[in-house]
């Protein structure tokens, strides 16, 4: 029996293995996340003990192969992101930072020595990584980053500041992107290196069950072997960002689905003027509109996943999915909150928490405006970024 949001029997498009993976992650979210997420969110707490559990499910770097990584498909990774974000965006964000950003950077651009040193332990949850690209004055335009790495004999010395770096305060290594005389390069920086410091960004109104930090690098000295040898120019970090953007396409629909299901259940039980709230035409219109966008968003996510597994996914297609699915998910969560009335502003219900989280998801890995311009460039052939 398809779930209430699945009007098209989309489950019929998934394999038995994909459905089994989804069931495992959903069960984990139901037992380990839902009973605790309100408290974690209220206290602005990310539970570090959950990392080993996520690793045990094969969710860290799950779409990467070799070096101890699970080697799952793109669709399987998407389904995992969907279920994690149905719990909370902060959990999907952790998996994204660890696997799609930090591990992906090493997997795509690292040497064999770097891959063998770091990836097995990261896949096992023994080591947490972060991805230091964004700066206080260089968010959507990373080409203007000011962090600089200069050669000093057989070493590199990096100085600069980074902002909105997920998990930096609990990470053992940071993938730091810096300008050099040779263009933008990436470096693996152990976070206990002298001159590397972090501070949590607090207080926040969004992603409260996650960690975002400011990072300062003051004359951080690294050996030549710290550089990612295959990452040259902005293509290096952008390839990693596209991995993270792909996961968001699925994850946002998880937040939307959870909000929709909450609104349906509440409206069926809440009595207004002598009958359930769900029995009124205006309520049904809102619920139908939510379900329509969830089904469309899931079709987008699944098509992009199949393209990715076939090696045919293009950057503008990722922008289409990220722009559409996050934008529609926020609208769904807000409408669901409205159906809950005053009760909807409490942490007893998920839609407002999801809507707040999605404000961050809408901003990171490319704002609406950036993805609009990527699509505009593809459609017209004219870049309009400047």
UniProtKB/TrEMBL annotation:
Keywords assigned by UniProt, alphabetized: FAD, Flavoprotein, Oxidoreductase, Transit peptide
Keyword Transit peptide found: yes
Domain Acyl-CoA dehydrogenase/oxidase C-terminal: 232-378
Cited SUPFAM superfamilies: Acyl-CoA dehydrogenase C-terminal domain-like (SSF47203), Acyl-CoA dehydrogenase NM domain-like (SSF56645)
UniProt xrefs under Gene3D superfamilies: Acyl-CoA dehydrogenase/oxidase, N-terminal domain, Butyryl-CoA Dehydrogenase, subunit A, domain 2, Butyryl-CoA Dehydrogenase, subunit A, domain 3
Family per similarity comment: Belongs to the acyl-CoA dehydrogenase family.
This protein's name: Acyl-CoA dehydrogenase family protein
Lineage: Bacteria, Bacillati, Actinomycetota, Actinomycetes, Micrococcales
């Amino acid at each position: 029996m398809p779930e209430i949001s699945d009007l098209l029997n989309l489950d019929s498009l998934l394999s038995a293995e994909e459905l089994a993976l989804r069931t495992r992650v959903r069960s984990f979210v139901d037992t380990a996340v839902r009973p605790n997420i309100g408290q974690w969110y209220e206290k602005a707490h990310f539970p570090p003990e959950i990392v080993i559990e996520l690793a045990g499910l094969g969710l860290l770097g799950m779409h990467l192969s070799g070096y101890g990584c699970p080697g799952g498909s793109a669709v399987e990774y998407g389904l995992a992101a969907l279920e994690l974000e149905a719990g909370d965006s902060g959990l999907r964000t952790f998996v994204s930072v660890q696997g799609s950003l930090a591990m992906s950077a090493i997997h795509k651009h690292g040497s064999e020595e770097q891959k063998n040193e770091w990836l097995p332990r990261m896949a096992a949850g023994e080591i947490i990584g972060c991805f230091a690209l964004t700066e206080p004055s260089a968010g959507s335009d990373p080409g203007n980053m000011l962090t600089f790495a200069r050669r000093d004999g057989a070493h590199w010395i990096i100085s600069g500041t980074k902002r909105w770096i997920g998990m930096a305060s609990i990470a053992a290594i940071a993938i730091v992107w810096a300008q050099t005389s040779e263009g933008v390069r990436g470096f693996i920086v152990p976070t206990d290196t002298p001159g590397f410091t972090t501070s949590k960004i607090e207080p926040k109104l969004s992603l409260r069950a996650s960690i975002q930090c400011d990072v300062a690098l003051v004359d951080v000295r690294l050996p030549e072997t710290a550089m990612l040898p295959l990452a040259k120019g902005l293509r290096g970090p952008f390839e990693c960002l596209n991995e993270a953007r792909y996961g968001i396409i699925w994850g946002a629909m998880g937040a939307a689905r959870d909000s929709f299901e909450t609104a349906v259940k509440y409206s069926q039980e809440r009595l207004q003027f002598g009958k359930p709230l769900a029995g009124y035409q205006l309520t049904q219109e809102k619920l139908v509109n939510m379900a329509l966008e969830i089904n469309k968003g899931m079709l987008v996510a699944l098509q992009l996943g199949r393209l990715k597994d076939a090696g045919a996914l293009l950057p503008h297609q990722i922008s289409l999915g990220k722009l559409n699915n996050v934008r529609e998910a926020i609208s769904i969560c807000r409408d669901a909150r409205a159906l809950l009335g005053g009760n909807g502003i409490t942490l007893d219900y998920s839609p407002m928490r999801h809507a707040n989280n999605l404000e961050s998801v809408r901003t990171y890995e490319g704002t609406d405006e950036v993805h609009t311009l990527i699509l505009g460039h593809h459609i017209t052939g004219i870049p309009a970024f400047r």
